[in-house]
Amino acid sequence: MKGIVFVKLNEFVEQTWGLACWESLLAATDLPSGGIYTSVMTYDDNEIFALIDAISKQKSLHPFEAQKTFGQWLFKELYAIAPAGVHQFNDVFGFLRAVQDVIHVEVKKLNPDVLLPEFEFLEETDTALTFEYRSPRKMNYFCEGLILGLAEYVDQTITVTHLLCEHKGDKKSVIRVDKC
Ligand code: HEM
């Protein structure tokens, strides 16, 4: 996972729970990097999961809830570094399509070592969008958080449902977003 995500996780923890919390997370985890992150580097995925686990233990949050909360906070930070041209989208469904078709494509061009999720759009109406989330990382709850952060950003009220979830025995993860 790219260093930017770790740098932002550090910021998220410090803003939400303070510097002492970040330090106690580092003390509770055995990270090959020592917890010193820079944006341009790539770190082992296990480090993000170890930190999320430590957050969930220390803050009594389910790990999925911790991923979701971080994703929701992170959206505006990723939006700020998104390629020019995507800032015209002010709708959750249009933006999600742009993530798959433009944003993550550009991110991959700039950083060939990134591993980005694939979204396969299955159905869209005026009020509902359903897509399959594919990634070996199975971060579908982090994905939910990013979508909630996006909705806040564009001032739309939505709900997110995990119609199928690989963590619950399904063979794939399918997410449905409803506009309320
Ligand atoms: C609602 C909007 C977005 C959604 C739903 C989304 C979804 C995701 C998810 C779920 C991941 C975790 C990796 C995985 O699942 O394998 C991810 C990673 C990432 N995304 Fe997005 N994303 C969004 C917007 C953006 C934006 C605006 C940027 C800006 C450049 C961005 C850049 C990245 C980067 C750099 C990573 C880390 C990849 C890696 O380290 O391998 N995303 N995204």
Automatic annotation (TrEMBL):
Residues 2-162 form the Heme NO-binding domain. Pfam families: HNOB (PF07700). One of its GO terms (molecular function) is heme binding. It comes from the Bacteria. This is 4-vinyl reductase.
